[in-house]
Every structure is written in C-alpha cells, then in structure tokens.
Design a protein that fits this description.
Strand content: 5-15%
Strand order of the largest sheet: 15-16-14-17-18-13-19
Radius of gyration: 37 Å
Number of strands: 30
Helix content: 40-55%
Structural class: alpha/beta
C-alpha cells in the first residue's frame, strides 16, 4: 500500500487513478452525487473502507483525500449516522474526514449543521475513545487523529453546534479535579467564585445517577486526558529506539494544550487545571525532551506552552497584567514560600531570612533547595498546595529532580515578555532560516503540527495579538529571505579552491563577493540596556560588472536591508548543486546576518548623504558601504564567542546580498509592531473588545453607539425626492417642504434614535424595538449657498442612483462606529466609498479622513473618483510611491501638493491684485498673504458692510431690485463673469447672487490665510509636513506605507478622525490594525470616531507565499474576514452592474441576496449576443493531448499545453471575427500556465497586426479587482482540483467577465468537487464542446439567448480548433489586398511548415506563396496526426521557465521533456 508521502506534490491523484480506485468504485455504487440508483446503506462498507483504505495505508493522505473528495462524509457517513450503527471504524472515519477538510482548508462543519441531532452522541463517543488505553480498541495513531479532531473542535467555538458540546468540558465545574487545598486557595482569591461553586455542587447533588456520571465524565475529561498523555510520555526513553507514533501523539497533545491556553474562553478555568497537573514540569524533564532529533519539535512546542501557561493575563477577568502587577505576583509567591520555610522548615531559615532579589534566581533556588531530601521537598510543595499532603512516615513517590524543578520553575524570576522581545534580533539568522519546524518549505502538506502561533478568532490581550502577528510576519519574511539567499548563493556557485579557500564559479545580480569587512563603531549601551546603542561596519565590494547592475548597487538607499553571508564550501570546483538536497550543506553556508545601509562612502571615507545635489563621481570599481548591524545580534554573537570560545562571525563574511526594494520592507514593519508593543497603544474603547474577539460583536455598530448623530446632511447622495423615497422602503418620510418644486436635493434627514444605553435581554430588546421604534424620517431639503457667478463655482454633483443597501452603507459610514460593507463583484464598492468620504468632508469640515487600501491601483481608482466630486483639491494628499500612476495631470504627492499650494497662492494673489485695481486702492497689497489679509479686513469688508447697510431689507421697508445691482461695489472685478451678473427679476434672487459673489471673494482670502504658513516655512520638507499635519483633510496611503512610516507620522503629530479601508479583505490582519494607531492618543484616549471597512471576504485573501503560515497558522485570514466570522454586523451590497445576469448566476449563490441592477438587462451591449459564439458562457472539456494533461516542470509550476493552445485559438478566432483585442483577457489559475500561454501567443499571433495580443494574460489572483468584457479561462489541472477548491478563487474567476466567459478544463475532475458544484452544475448544463458560429461577425444584431441564424459548428477538440482558425485566417488573408505582406506572419499548424518558415525566409516570395497555397489544401487531412510533433517543435524553443536558473545545466532535461 501507499507509504506516507513526504510532500504535497507526490500525492495528487489523477482522474484515471481516481476512477481505478476501489473507493471510486464503491462511491459509484453507494454515495456518488451523480449516480441516480444507489445501493442501500451498509455499515460493513464503512468497516471495509476504514480497514482497507485508511488503516492498511497507515492513514495515507492520498487515500483520505480521495475519500473526502468523493463526498464520503456528506453523502454517506453523516447522513446515515445513528447511535445504533456507531462503531470504532465509523467514529474514526468521520474524524479523518473532518481533519482532512481542515487540512484542505474547506468548510468542515456544514454537514453536521444540517443534521445536528446525533452530534452530541458522536462527540461523547470521541471523548470516551480518546481516553482508552492503547491497544484496548484504539491504537495510538487513531487517538492522535482524535486529539487533532478535538483540537479542531476547540478552535471552532464560533459554530453553535460545536460550542454547545465543548463548553461542558471547559467550564468552572472542571475544578473538581483540583487538589482540595488548591481549590480552597483558588476560591479564596475570588470571593464571587465560592458562590458559583456552591451552586454548582448543589445542582450536581440533585442529578440522577446516569446524569451525574455523564457530568462527572465531562468535568474530568481534560484532566484524565492529561494523565493519559503523561503515561504515554513516560514510556518514551531518553535514548535508544522510539516509536514515532508516540512522539506524534505527544506533539499533537501539546498543540491541543497550547490552543486551549491561547483562547480566553477555554483558558479561563483550564489554566488552573494545567498548573495543578504540573504538565510543563513533567514534559521538560521527560525523555522525549532530551532526545535531540525526535524531541526537537516537541521542545519548541513546549516552549510555546510555557509561554502561554505563564501569560501576563488575569484568567478570570481577561485583563492584561502590567509589568508592576507581574512583579508583585512574583514577590508574593517568593515571600509566601519564605514564610512557609520560616514557620515549618528550620533547614530553610537561611533562605527565609534572605531578601527576595538574592534568592529568586534559578541558581540560588537550586542552592537552597537542592540540599533537601525528596520527602522534605514534597512537604514544602504540599504546604504550597502544589501536591497532595504526604502522610506521616510515608516516603514520597516523586523523584527529587521533579520536586526540585516544580519549586524552582514556579518561583524563579521571569524575564518579562516585552524585555525578551526588545532583546530579540529582528533579522533572521541561519538557525531560524533553515529550521523546518519554524519555517517549513513550500511543500508543507498539512500533516504534522508546527511550532507556530495561530491566528484564530480571539486573542488574549493586545500584546498577545501583536506578538502572534509579529512572529508570523517575521517568519513569512524569513521564508522569502531564504528563497532569495538560496537563489543568489546558488547562482554564485561557491566551490572549494585547491588551496582550501572559496572560489565563485558563477555570478548573481543580487549578490557580490565581499572584498573587505571591518567593524568601525560599537557605541556604548543606553542606560538600562546591555546591548550596544549601535554597531556600524564598512563593507567593500568590487563592482566590475555591467553598468546597469553597477548602478543598482550604487543606488542602494539609506535603510535598505542587505544580508551578510559566510560560505565555506566543501565541494570541489565544478560540482553541480542538487536542488533536492539540503541547501546549506551543499554550499557550505555557515552564517547569515542582516544589516541596514547607511550609505556609500566617498573618496575621503565620508558617507554620501542623500539629497537633491548630484552624487560625486567615484573612480574605479571598488565601493565601500557603511552599514548598521543589529546591536542585539552583535551582543549575542560576542557573548557566545567569549563564553563558549566560538569563532567571531564578523570576521568570516564573504558574500553580501541585496533584495528587491518592494519585498524588503520587513524590518520597518517589524520595528513598527515592536514599537506598538512598547507603547500604551490606545485602541478606541468601542473597538478594543471587538479586535480581541470578545463581547457583543455588534457593540460598535452605529445603532449602539452613544454618540449617534440625529440629523445628517446627505449632500448630493440623492438624485431626486423619488430616489430618496425608494432608498428607505421600510420608513415613512415626512418632507418639511410642501412645495413639490422645492423638494430637490440636497436633503438633511433626521433619523429616530435608538437608546443605545438601555441594556435588556435580547428577546425583550427585539420586542421593544418592534413596538417602540418610530419609523418616520424627517426630510428637510436645503439650498447650497450661492458660491459665485463663475461656471466653475457650481458644485460637482454625484450622478449615481444608489440602491437602498448602498444608501444604508453610506448612512452607516457617516455615523460614528464600525461600518463593515461587503461588496460582491460589480456592486459599486468604490462609488459607495467615495460618497462616504465626500459626505464626511461636507458634514464635518473640521475632521480628517485617512484612506487606506491594499494596492496603489485601488488607491488611484478612488482618487480619480474623489476628484469628480465636490471636494476642494487643496485638501487632498496622497502618500507613498504610487501617485505617479494616477491618470490625471495633477500630482497629489506631498511635494506635488506643496507645488500646487505655492502656484495657487500666486494665482490667488494675482486675483487680489485684480480686486485691488477694480476698487482703485493704491499700494502693494498683493505681495504676501499677510498684506492681502489686511487689504481684506480694511478695504473689502468695509465696502461690503456699507453695501449691506444700503440694500439689506429692514422691517417695514422694501428695497428696490435695481438698488441691489446699483450699489454693488465689485462690478468691475466680476466683469469677466458671464453677464449680466444680476438678473433683475427679484430682490431675493439678486441678493443671493450678491452674497454668492462675496463668498467667492471671501474664499480667496480664506485660502490665502491657510497658505500663509508656506511663506514662513522655507524648506520643501517643512512645507510638506505642515501640509500633512494641518492642511490636508483627506489623506490616502497603502497599508504597507502606513506600516513603514508609522514612527515618522506619530512623531510629526499626525491626526485623523475617520479611517476608510478599501479592499479590506485583501489586507493582512496586522497591516489592517496598524493604521488605527498612526496618531498619539489625546489625554489617554484615541480620537478615532469612525472605522469603515469595505471588502469582500468571498474573494481572495491576502497573499501568503508559505503554505504552512497560510494554512496552519491561518495567516491569510484578514481582520475583515475575522470580524465577519465573529458576527460583526455587515451591510451586504446586493445589486451588481458589471456582468450579464446569466454570468452573475455563476457566482451569486455565494452571497446572501445578490441581484442585478436594471441596466444589465436594458443596455444594448448586455442585450446583444456574443458574435460567432453560440453561448454567452461555456465550459469546454479538454482531454489529454498527445497523452498528456497537466505537467509540472518545477514544483507547483503547473502547465497544460492543450488548454493553452485551445485558449489562444479561441482568442485568435474572436479577433478574426472583429472583437477588439483590448476587450479580451486570458486568465489562468497557475503561474506556469500564464507563462505557457504567453509563449503560445508569441509563437502564434503576438506580432501579427491582424490579431495581436489580448488585453492581459495573467493569473486569476492577479486579476482580482479588474474586469473585462470577454474572459477566456484555463483551469489547467487534470489530476487534482488543486487550489481552485478554495471557493474564493472560483468566485474571482467567475466574476471577471462582463459579457462572455469561456472556460477550458477537465470537466470530469471539477464537476465532482463538492465545494464547486453550484457553479459547475450550471456550467455542465450546457454542451461541453465549443459551439461557434463562424459566419457571424462582431458586432451582431442577434439578441442574447436567441438561436443563431447562421450554421453552428461544434468543435470536438483543440487540434480541430487550431486547424479551423488557421484555415479561417488564410481565407481572410487571401481575400484581402495585403496578402503578400501578411502571409508570413501566422505560423501554419504543421511541423514541416514551421521548419520552412525558419529556413526559407530569404527565398522568393512567389515560391512561399505556392508552398502555402498547396499546403493549406492538405491541412485538413494532415493536421490531426502532425499536430503533436509541431507542438514539441514550438515548445522546445520556448524561453526557459521562471523559477529555473538560466545557468543550471539540467534545465533542458527537466524543462524539455515536460510535454
């Protein structure tokens, strides 16, 4: 049978394997969804499958994968499960399937939720079986599977069904397992607990015998499980042979303990039980912990458990403990031990009378207690309620080592977590980089457990939250660094020279040999620290390389991170490196240390500072860089070298490596997180519990906020009063203006407020809301004050008719609190975001809004739409490096805005000069902002006030209309406005115009007053800082920029009141959190009032390159997704306007109520059919070509030649019908296929002006957030579904097309996948062969859904399509005048012709024409047999695949035979 595979790569079964498997044959009889007549349920089938497929194969993933994929759990195991048929094999089968679902990262509990009645019985059976002794009825391997199943249960507390079962195991009654003395001690600490405890005991006494037995089992379960584990642990010797099953059981058990300790609901009562069992002490003294190889992962897991067991938190209240509280608790423990020693143990008097600082170190405690006998140690421990009392005359059964460790580990002084963190080097070293338990390779299969933190739903404290994210971010960066080091060093080919030194046989763009390295400064430590304040070194390299690469090295900027590497190769010159062997051993890699560039040195040895002045020209090729080393790392290395006699690492470096700037910001982000942990990071009170995952998830919704705003001005949100009425269908509207002609936007709306402070039980609250809530909205139309007579004075207005849910999202975004908007594809997320920003800007002009997005592209889209609304340009600012991509002539970067302000200032001062001239005032008043201010005060205001006194209507006196115009003092100034300025129709109208004119003038001086600071600040840097801190009202940046620049922003005194995050479901958890804390708190409180997150958790999550961090640690979970899982209220946009309704059906099942906007049925482009194609979407089945389906030249580099050729042939066909190339994109699910399709396009049509290239050829993941009219999609895989099984990827793939979607795939594989059935059922309902209408050209008049008037041609396979397109092309060329010029551009589909094209290019044109004519006639017969040879010919010449070294000699062997 199959052995347990090592890598994920090796266990993907093919369709043919699946069909041949025993499992599949059984499935086809009993449970396959597509089989109509199934055999009745037979429990023997389950026994057979379990014994034959799972146990016999030693739980091989390949077998379990097949079973799970065949829908064994959904369609057979659970639907037929009852207590009657339950058996050991049945239990184990269900556990294996659930574990496999978690490993594959697909929803696991849906099936159980549908039929929940037997779950409690099943769960109890699992609990009982996990406690049986090995060999009774369950092996240790099976119990390891059960432990993993229980771990998944404890980590799924958000599922009601699971929580109801798990809660019994982790509630207060479990304290019955404590020692009586310990229980008494704990109850004394919290008086309220005694009351609860007495009540629990009272209720327990009332239970009947059976119920009492069941309750007792549940209460003692975890305690019994710990005892069972300790028995297994003790059976592992410290040397000699060991059963790996026992080791794996112990590792999984410790993982379960860590997960219980790392969640507050499970930890609250369990932590005391864990402490009472002394599990950590037993583990650290066990034989397994002493085994270097087998116990390595166990020890790492144990360190994590120690960390969480002593975590700085009050278990009962959940409050974080401060440094001071931790110290006083430590003192309390030591002094109580000293009191006990003084009163009862005369031999410890010396210890009892010492001061605490003298006795609380490990060495000191061992010195005092090590001399005592085991019996005395036992009595000390029992006096402290740690062990049961030792009866008089009895001898203790505990070993002295264990008793001593118990007392010492409990009372030794702990280094605080924050101190440990501050002493931690931020750069990874070789010890971490190549440790598989911490940074697993990309082939992590999900089988074993790892010593990694997990990001689940809840966190203990903000410190715990930041620390887990810190560690994972650090390790994910380490993984990327490892890839870069392996790539650069292997390209340099370090070999051992004849004399024992190092010789480099290759070269690398990103790495250079070091010529000289010297430490130039080790600064004294800061007060209270024991590591140097800074360490600087000089690195000299020789840049005798191409100018372009030399410029890259010379262009290293301040704060760029580089790595210093020591290699000592042992392989002789010319040895080839084997990628499958461990990298460090082959290359002789010894040390890796990080450093940060300070700058390059000039001829005098001074650092060349960055600035506007040109850099000095340096002679020769030798360059020296001054670098900062990590002081913590330097101190550790020096200590190691002095104390242990190790060599000095810093004298051995021989390679320096740089990295791409975009991927090299990890150190700045890590420093940001560490700084946050060192400061009192003040999260707003209304957000604190939600971020940690506790309390009422809806508590930050605007309806529950105490500072709701009763009346909101919706500005230009509504287009008309009818639009307003349709936006609130469930409310009555009371419009205060009765005159219909005046019922025009903008509208102010007064909402009935709910009383957020009243706390009632949920049922009552809902009832009361139904009865009491007044549903009437008071609407008040108002007129925007006239802004002036010029056309540009008119405000820009919104033109979008928002839907009722979009209006609810806008309303929520304007109110204080947390707003989460789920925006399915095409539902106008960006438009909603822009309207919220605009409304906040007008409602709260004194507030500042921060916009954060994942990508520069999204930020630029937002900015382009913001500029179309009524927002003053001077209040916009864009930080980061993406502003150059903005499709506008305006520059919104810091310096761009400074230049804008300076130019605007001059423009306004010219206007002041014109006004001065028009008023006939002498003197130079338009010289500066200050003189202009005086001019306004003394000349302009006085004239205006005088004017008002003449024309303002007084009681009982009417003013003639003409007087408004006659006395107006600024006629001359407004002579360049559209004339006449005053209409003379009515007094009110003319007065409004006059006031508008004055507002226009006043705005000039208001802006000049704001710009006055720019006259005082002289440098561009100061001016840009002022702009950021004072002037800008809407500041935009990417989440990466926020993480990098937090320190600078906080130091500047940056302030903001609102945050809006776009693409929130694509941003890493920590990168979402950091923008909340880009400002210092005011009086200990955050001034943040609103947090608006807009995203779609049904689309793809943040990109995590390492599979282990992505799956095991759940690092791909965004904060947005976590909030949705926690039940935070969301506004789900429910009308899409991107795709045809038929295309929308392929993915709208994933959303609550996703419908279509009217225009996707009404607009002509949506009504028209897709010319030349019988259907608007089709799934086209692609079988093996030349006996090959998917291929994998490199790990995870999947390709499928048949699909690539078919997709390109369809693109060429569409182009020949007249479809524009920029309206077609080709997508695929794998990078390898993307490169293959690009190669095929280059060969077939890329340089052909008739056809050209599609708009984009890229992966589905890269195309998220974009769209096109026609999408051709290749799904690549033919052996296993692969990562398309993640429904989020399917949703993105299906939702990119507006008018047409054509998918090439192996249908038999994908339609069996349970998660994908809603989409693939619709796709498979249409013919699976491509139906084309060759005589119908683009654009067609045929209506979508109508049968074509021309003949429909059915294409059976890819060669037929390629042949058809070639014939069609030749026919088109022959009928065109450009035949002679064009004929060479399209390679015909035959090998012989490919050779002719290559060899006969110089021959006469006539000869080529006759050859081609002749061969075009032969094509139909010759093509099917010749095609495979032609493909090999084409692809053997293709460029090498990315990910392979261009200089590795085996590239042809691996790459060439892939087809």
């Amino acid at each position: 049978m199959d052995k347990l595979p090592q890598t994920k790569k090796s266990f993907a079964p093919s369709v043919s394997q699946i069909n041949a498997e025993f499992v599949t044959q059984l499935a086809n009889k009993y449970w396959a969804p597509h089989v109509k007549k199934k055999l009745p349920f037979d429990r023997k089938v389950i026994e057979d499958v379990y014994q034959q497929e799972i146990v016999k194969s030693k739980f091989a993933i390949k077998k379990i994968m097949l079973l799970e994929f065949s829908q064994y759990l959904e369609n057979y195991l659970w639907v037929n499960y009852t207590p009657k048929v339950s058996s050991a094999a049945y239990l184990m089968s269900i556990c294996c399937m659930v574990n496999e679902k978690f490993r594959e990262n697909v929803p696991a509990w849906e099936t159980f939720k549908k039929n929940p009645e037997h779950f409690p019985y099943f769960f109890k059976c699992v609990l009982n079986s996990s406690l049986t002794e090995e060999g009774d009825s369950f092996s240790l391997k099976e119990q390891t599977v059960q432990i993993l199943f229980l771990d998944h249960c404890f980590n799924s507390l958000e599922v009601d069904l699971i929580r109801s079962q798990v809660q019994q195991l982790i509630s207060l009654p479990m304290w019955v397992c404590l020692l009586p003395a310990r229980l008494e001690h704990e109850l004394k600490k919290v008086p309220k607990l005694r009351k609860f405890w007495n009540l629990i005991m009272k209720n327990y006494a009332k239970l009947d015998e059976k119920a009492a037995e069941q309750a007792s089992k549940e209460r003692t379960f975890l305690s019994s499980l710990i005892k069972k584990f300790l028995r297994v642990l003790k059976s592992i010797p410290s040397s000699g042979p060991v059963s790996m099953e026992k080791v794996h059981y112990c590792e999984r058990f410790i993982e379960l303990m860590i997960d219980l300790e790392a969640l507050l609901p499970t930890r609250r009562w369990f932590n005391t039980i864990l402490d009472n069992s002394h599990l950590v002490v037993h583990c650290s003294l066990s034989g397994l912990a002493q085994r270097e190889k087998e116990g390595h992962l166990f020890c790492q897991l144990l360190d994590m458990l120690k960390f969480y067991a002593g975590f700085e938190i009050n278990d009962q209240t959940g409050n974080a403990l401060t440094e001071k509280e931790m110290t006083s608790m430590h003192y309390e423990r030591i002094t109580s031990l000293q009191r006990a020693a003084f009163a009862h143990f005369p031999e410890l008097h010396g210890f009892a009378l010492s001061n605490v600082a003298a006795v609380d170190t490990r060495d000191s405690l061992i010195k005092h207690f090590g001399i005592l006998s085991p019996d005395t140690l036992h009595r000390v421990a029992s006096y402290l309620c740690l062990l049961p009392a030792l009866p008089e005359g009895d001898i203790t059964t505990y070993e002295k080592e264990m008793l001593l460790e118990l007392l010492v580990s409990r009372h030794e002084r702990r280094i605080s977590q924050i101190e440990q963190l501050n002493q931690m080097p931020l750069y990874p070293t070789e010890k971490i980089i190549w440790d598989e338990n911490i940074v697993p390779t990309e082939y992590y299969s999900g089988e074993g457990c790892l010593a990694l933190p997990k990001l689940n739903l809840q966190f203990l404290t903000l410190h715990d939250y930041l620390l887990r994210n810190f560690n994972l971010f650090r390790l994910e960066s380490t993984y990327e660094i490892r890839q870069d080091i392996e790539d650069a060093v292997s390209r340099m080919k370090p070999w051992q020279s004849e004399y024992g030194g190092v010789v480099f046989g290759g070269w690398a763009r990103m790495a250079q040999p070091i010529v000289a390295f010297t430490i130039v400064e080790v600064a004294k430590p800061n007060i209270g620290e024991n590591w140097p304040a800074r360490v600087r070194a000089d690195v000299t390299i020789n840049l005798n390389i191409r100018d372009q690469i030399k410029n890259e090295w010379e262009g290293l900027r301040k704060h760029d991170v580089c790595f210093l590497i020591t290699v000592r190769p042992t392989k002789p010159y010319g040895t080839r490196f084997d990628r499958r062997e461990p990298f460090a051993e082959q290359t002789g890699l010894m040390y890796v240390r990080g450093c940060e560039i300070q700058g390059m040195l000039d001829d005098q040895g001074r650092v060349i500072e960055e600035g506007p002045e040109p850099k000095p020209h340096l002679k020769g090729d030798s360059r020296t860089f001054r670098v900062w080393l990590d002081p913590n790392q330097y101190q550790q290395d020096m200590t190691n070298s002095i104390q242990n006699g190790a060599e000095d690492v810093y004298e051995t470096f021989n390679i320096i490596m740089r990295r791409k700037p975009k991927e090299n910001n990890f150190k700045a982000v890590l420093e940001t997180i560490r700084n946050l942990m060192n400061t009192d990071c003040v999260v707003p009170d209304w957000l604190h519990d939600i971020i940690l995952g506790y309390g009422d998830p809806g508590s930050a919704h605007y309806s529950k906020m105490p500072n709701q705003i009763p009346t909101l001005d919706f500005n230009d949100t509504f287009l008309s009063v009818d639009h307003l009425k349709s936006s609130f269908p469930e409310n009555k509207l009371s419009v205060e203006e009765e005159n219909m002609s005046l019922q025009k936007p903008p509208f102010r709306i007064a909402f009935p407020l709910k009383n957020a402070k009243v706390k009632k039980r949920k049922a009552e609250e809902e009832q009361d809301e139904m009865n009491l809530e007044d549903c009437t909205l008071k609407v008040e139309p108002h007129v925007i004050p006239n802004r002036g007579p010029y056309p540009y004075n008119q405000p820009k207005c919104n033109l979008i008719q928002f839907t009722p849910t979009q209006i609810e999202a806008i309303r929520a975004g304007m109110q204080p609190g947390l707003t989460m908007v789920v925006g399915p594809p095409g539902t106008g997320k960006t438009d909603v975001a822009v309207q919220i920003i605009s409304n906040l800007y007008h409602n709260f002009p004194e507030q500042r809004t921060l916009i954060v997005t994942h990508s520069n592209q999204a930020l630029n889209q937002l900015f382009e739409k913001i500029m179309a609304l009524d927002i003053d340009e001077r209040h916009l600012l864009r930080l980061g490096h993406g502003e150059e991509e903005l499709e506008t002539e305006k520059d919104f970067s810091r310096y761009g805005r400074v230049n804008y302000v300076l130019a605007r200032r001059l423009e306004l001062l010219r206007e002041v000069g014109r006004l001065q001239e028009s008023l006939d005032v002498h003197g130079d008043v338009s010289y500066t902002c200050e003189t202009a201010g005086h001019f306004f005060l003394y000349q302009v205001m006085s004239r205006w006030e005088e004017y008002l006194s003449k024309v303002k209507a007084k009681p009982g006196k009417t003013v003639d209309v003409e007087e408004v115009s006659r006395y107006f003092p600024f006629h001359k100034y407004f002579s360049n406005a559209p004339q006449p300025v005053f209409k003379g129709r009515s007094y009110d109208e003319d007065m409004d115009i006059a006031e508008g004119c004055f507002r226009h003038i006043r705005k000039i001086f208001t802006q000049l007053e704001e710009f006055r600071a720019f006259e005082l600040l002289r440098s561009g840097l100061d001016r840009s800082k002022y702009l950021l801190v004072k002037e800008a009202k809407i500041i935009a940046m990417t989440c990466t920029h926020a993480a990098l620049k937090r320190h600078d922003l906080v130091e500047l005194g940056f302030k903001y009141d609102n945050i809006l995050m776009e693409e929130a479901a694509q941003i890493l958890e920590i990168e979402t959190f950091i923008p909340l804390l880009l400002q210092n708190p005011q009086d200990g409180f955050s001034r943040l009032k609103r947090w608006i997150m807009i995203g779609d958790h049904h689309q793809l999550p943040p990109v995590i390159k390492n599979m282990a961090f992505q799956k095991y640690s759940n690092m791909e979970q965004s904060l947005f997704t976590r909030f949705v899982r926690l039940g935070v209220p969301t506004v789900d946009l429910d009308a899409q306007g991107r795709a045809r309704a038929s295309l929308c059906n392929l993915y709208n099942w994933r959303y609550k109520h996703l419908g279509n906007l009217p225009h996707v049925q009404l607009l002509p482009e949506f009504q028209r059919a897709n010319a030349g194609l019988a259907f608007d979407f089709q799934l086209i089945n692609v079988e093996d070509f030349n006996g090959i389906g998917e291929s994998e030249p490199n790990p995870y580099f999947y390709q499928n030649l048949a699909e690539a050729e078919y997709a390109v042939a369809l693109f060429m066909y569409m182009r020949l019908l007249g479809y524009p190339a920029d309206k077609i994109s080709i997508l695929t699910t794998y990078n390898g296929q993307k490169h293959l399709i690009r190669d095929v396009i280059n060969q077939r049509c890329g340089n052909n002006p008739f056809i050209g290239r599609p708009s984009k050829v890229t992966t589905v993941d890269r195309f998220q957030g974009q769209q096109n009219d026609y999408i051709i999609l290749s799904l690549v895989r033919t052996k296993a579904v692969g990562h398309l099984r993640d429904v989020r990827r399917l949703v993105v793939a299906m939702s990119r097309a507006r008018l047409g979607l054509y998918i090439f795939a192996r249908v038999s594989l994908f339609q069996n996948c349970f998660e994908l059935t809603p989409a693939f059922n619709q796709l498979a309902a249409r013919p699976l062969l491509l139906h084309i209408v060759p005589d119908e050209y683009f654009p067609t008049d045929r209506k979508n859904g109508d049968p074509p008037q021309h003949q429909v041609k059915v294409i059976k396979n890819m060669p037929e399509m390629a042949n058809f397109v070639y014939t069609m092309y030749m026919h088109l060329i022959q009928s065109s005048h450009h035949y002679r010029q064009q004929q060479q551009l399209l390679p015909p589909p035959r090998q012989t012709q490919m050779e002719e094209l290559g060899s006969e290019e110089e021959q006469q044109e006539e000869k080529m024409q006759t050859e081609k004519d002749k061969e075009a006639e032969e094509t139909k017969d010759a093509e099917p047999t010749k095609k495979p040879e032609e493909e090999e010919e084409v692809h053997s010449k293709m460029p090498e695949h990315p990910g392979r070294d261009s200089d590795s000699e085996d590239s042809d062997i691996e790459g060439g035979t892939q087809y």
